[in-house]
Amino acid sequence: MLIAIPTDNGQMSGHFGHAPHFTLYTIENNEVVEKKVLPSPPHQPGLLPQFLGEQNVDIIIAGNMGSRAKELFAQNGIKVVCGVGEVELDEIIEQYITGVLKDDPTISCGH
């Protein structure tokens, strides 16, 4: 499984669509086997779901996301997990692997 987290200066970015990087975690048997940082493409509405789909990302974890972006990720076969607070990246992954972190479908940004 490949998980993407929008990042800025090693922290989760507050706005996934403008994040300068994505940190990608490869998970096998509930263990992180690879972690890499991928530069984001230039911002363009609707591009990130396709871009991350081309990277074979299975899940994107973010603080919040608009309903249109959620739809586009779903169309690209990428599960969305929203509602993450200010937590270190490795801890976010650990919480997801252990089942503590779950999607909060009520979280959405207003644009």
What does the model show?
With about 110 residues, the chain is an alpha/beta fold. The protein is built from three helices and six strands; from the N terminus they run ββββαβαβα. Strands 1, 2, 3, 4, 5 and 6 form a six-stranded mixed sheet that branches. The radius of gyration is 13 Å and the shape is globular. The protein starts with a strand and ends in a 14-residue tail after the last helix.
Structural key phrases:
alpha/beta; 111 residues
Record the SSE blueprint.
Layout: E1 2-8, E2 11-12, E3 21-28, E4 31-39, H1 47-54, E5 59-62, H2 67-75, E6 79-82, H3 89-97
Parallel strand pairs: 1-5, 5-6
Antiparallel strand pairs: 1-2, 1-3, 3-4
**Share of residues in strands:** 25-35%
Structural class label: alpha/beta
Helix and strand run: EEEEHEHEH
Show unreliable segments.
none
Shape: globular
Number of helices: 3
Give the number of DSSP strands. 6
Radius of gyration: 13 Å
Q: Mind summarizing the main beta sheet?
A: 6 strands, mixed
Average pLDDT number: 89
Q: What fraction, in percent, of the residue positions are helical? A: 10-25%
**CA distance, first residue to last residue:** 30 Å
